[in-house]
């Protein structure tokens, strides 16, 4: 085997080296008179976390952590660690998050930290499976754009030869254009970038957005029914897979036997004691709504439905109800009091769409490629965007969304 030297203890006639690889930590046992005397010196002076290769015979052992120990026949140093370590890998005392993120490669060596990314991988695989089973095509849309779709405040500008471009805040415009291209059902799992100025535990500047778009929908409920079953299937299959592997985080995924409750925006306003206010929900509001939904419906997931136009004014692509233009078909999906997804039916009629753009402060002239998709036949359609980091965050119960990303980016962090 080969791995990192976690610890070495010499106790008279016997010495133990603990060597960690991705499958766990193995005890290597050196017996005086049996093992090569050189190895005692080698392990004794080798810094922790160096990489060693050990060949030998594995024997059953009641006393060791994995039920086996390795008696070496050959030992070789593969890569020597520098000292001191800026971050302990096996220390019992936890370092603060900034120190951990500053030395993320060492932090990621901790089995409990790697476990988060194993759960994340299973959740992503579960989503891909759930979409493919429903006839969605996986697509990849451009991340270097001329225009944003989610408002100017969070756009990152980049120098693009002699022009200015922006990093994609969302694949919004492109997933809709693919409905104009006749793809009917698409999904994308890709980075999205937002210049979030506030330093919160729920915002990062680079996140993974899971987007879907569907054509020929009859209304918002078609979208919600799909999102609802996709989330339940994806988490169900991730839980099954992790359980079969005996993964320590398998139990973090809740069983979700029933569809999620649909809570009208107006009901949530009443819960908050401000009926008819038509204000967007803040962090504390979301927490209150999440706790109430959990108490009333016994579900950690819940939809907030029928967002008012006043709250979605800048979401120019959102359809507004012709009979009641104060209402959109927009909804959010909440999980433990955090918004994890947002979506709804789109406006597919170009006249209404350009009206919405103007009302939201967007100039239609800046969106020629997008608007062209609406000029030559566009089916009714809709979709949603779901934050992968947010769902993993809520599943694991970690203190900060940054812990769900390998190398998180925020206002102050571009390195490592
Ligand atoms: P929205 O802006 O609500 O919708 O974003 C969708 C989801 O993306 C996640 N998210 C974030 N996660 C971490 N850090 C951030 N800074 C961040 N910003 C957003 C959230 C959120 O629910 N185009 C629409 C989607 C659509 O209508 O299809 C959109 O982007 O989980």
Write a concise synopsis of the structure shown.
The chain is α+β, with helices and mostly antiparallel strands and 416 residues long.
Fold and architecture overview:
By secondary structure, this protein is α+β, with helices and mostly antiparallel strands. It folds into two domains: 83 residues, Nucleic acid-binding proteins (OB fold (Dihydrolipoamide Acetyltransferase, E2P), Beta Barrel); 297 residues, 2-Layer Sandwich (BirA Bifunctional Protein, domain 2), CATH 3.30.930.10. 30% of the residues lie in helices and 28% in strands. The chain has an eight-stranded mixed sheet, with helices on both faces. It has a five-stranded mixed barrel with strand order 1-2-3-5-4. A hairpin with a 2-residue loop joins β2 and β3. α4 packs across α6. The two termini are 29 Å apart. The mean pLDDT is 96. The site of aspartyl-adenosine-5'-monophosphate has 22 residues, from β11, β17, β18 and α11. Aspartyl-adenosine-5'-monophosphate binds next to β11, β17, β18 and α11.
